[in-house]
Specification:
By secondary structure, this protein is α+β, with helices and mostly antiparallel strands. It is built from 3 helices and 12 strands, in the order E-E-E-E-E-E-H-H-H-E-E-E-E-E-E. The strands form 6 sheets. A two-stranded antiparallel ribbon has the order 1-12. A two-stranded antiparallel sheet has the order 2-11. The protein is rod-shaped.
Amino acid sequence: MQIPQIRLHQTYAQIGLRNSPPVQEIEQKPADQTIKQVPATMTIERKPSHLDIDQEQLWNELNFKSNSVFSEDMAAFAKQEALEAVAEKAQEGDQFAAIEKKNDAIQSVVSANANPGPAEFNIGFIPSYGSVKIHFTPSELTIDWKQGGAEIETHQNRPIHNYTPGKTEVYLRQMQNLQIDFVGGNVDNMS
């Protein structure tokens, strides 16, 4: 006799996951920067040097005199000569006036005029030392400067951030199933 059997065939349910990853986009623009260079300024003031050379005494000593100096010298020389001549004549007059002293005034005056003394002589250097006068004023240099610099302006840009979150979706990939089969003949309850 064949025993009937019950066969069960079961399929389990299966779930599936659909995963979409998150998307993140970051864009960073560089900072905007402007730099302005302020130049240094420098001013230079220069006073030139000055040289004065006075050769008037040199030329006068070499007898290359100007008309005005020559006229003044001649006038002074003539005045001095005139004063000396007056003094000499006054002295001679005093000698002649002193006849009462019984000295021979005429003979002494004549012999002094006939036999003058030796001329004065001295070694002279022409031109003399220091006859050229030199005066020098050195140049003056004044430097003034101001330091420049840099003007820097910076503007930072914020990052651009786009974010799309990811998703996980659960779905039923396979449906559960239970199959029941009866195998093995018919069961007869008749007896």
